[in-house]
Amino acid sequence: MSNGGMETKDRISALPDEILCHILSFLSTHDSFATSFLSKRWQPLWLFSPILHLNDQTFIRNGRSYSSFFNFAYGTLFKCRMHQPLTVARFNLTPRTCGYGSDFPYPLFKIWVSTVVQRGIQQLVIEIPRALEVPHIIWTCKTLVVLKLYRLSVDVFVKVHLPVLKTLHLDFLFVSKSQYLAEILHGCPVLEDFRAYHIFLDNKLDGVEFPTMPKLVRADLKVDYVFEFPLKVVSNVEYFRFFLKLKKESFPIFKNLLHLELHLGLNIQWHLVIKMLSHCPKLETIMLHMPVEPFSTTSWISPQFVPHCVASQLKRCSIFNYTGRKSELQFTKFILQNSTALQTMTIHKIRPSYSSNHQSKFQMLQELVMCPKNSAKCKLLFK
């Protein structure tokens, strides 16, 4: 190929197959397929990508029917890739494709999932805006390392055996009985990363034995206000992101917890914050998120004791969406005045309180700066 007498080379096409397949792995499977029309060099490459990403957005943007999406998915899975091993599979379907009637070909979808499981899948992500039953074959996949499920359901008891699963994310999961969720956790003996956002299930925990996950390092919990998730499941974690609910009164000992990101609800109970801190003896970092919306809060009552982590372990404290309410200020002072190891106190996004007698931003800053600190190394930062 020449350009003004100078020959130009297609340097990308000259790269090895392994590198080109790696580049294609960042595209959806449909976009990866489109590269096969570039030249003969590119024509077979998309078939060798170890990643399958079926996303119907491309079809919707082009005004094509959902049946064309299913036809493409069928051809990709059963005509072109039967002998190609897969490591990652993602299914991202929108309401237009799934619908809420009886026309969604769920039996075909189960065949899709069964096919990728049988080909040694290591990472599986399913995002469907409809509470379809999780295909049972997933729960006994011996090769899965990462499993992320969005808006699916577990309606019947299944035996779970996921011997190498390390990451489990469950968002908007509908579970008909608490026992089924316990069974899922029992079947993940080496789980290290667990996320549960809005799990909907009954609140009947009597007789249901939830395990304490021995290998768990990181947990992220935001459950609904009906179901009280048993926190002993995540009591071994080192990193914990938690949305503290109003009625949560009991906490296990988080013996390994180093980093806590705590989100407070619209009805803040400061005694629960202190109580949780008292159950985190090794805590070094706390990130406290105040509500963005107008909120109510109990009056600050000075604790009768200083939690061990506050007194001797805490190094970093960050408060987000700080408004300068009296109770917020008193909590901040409590940390500053009782933490001997504190290195930084960071106040983020200072904004006036929603109350009628709020302080000005300058007054808030001044009062915090003048507060005595128990740690000589502590720096007060505003961001």
TrEMBL record:
Secretion signal span: none
Domain F-box: 9-45
Classification via Gene3D superfamilies: 1.20.1280.50, Ribonuclease Inhibitor
InterPro entries (alphabetical): F-box-like_dom_sf, F-box_AtFBL13-like, F-box_dom, FBD, FBL60-like, LRR_dom_sf, LRR_FXL15/At3g58940/PEG3-like
Domain of life the protein comes from: Eukaryota
Pfam families in alphabetical order: F-box, FBD, LRR_At5g56370
Name this polypeptide is given: F-box domain-containing protein
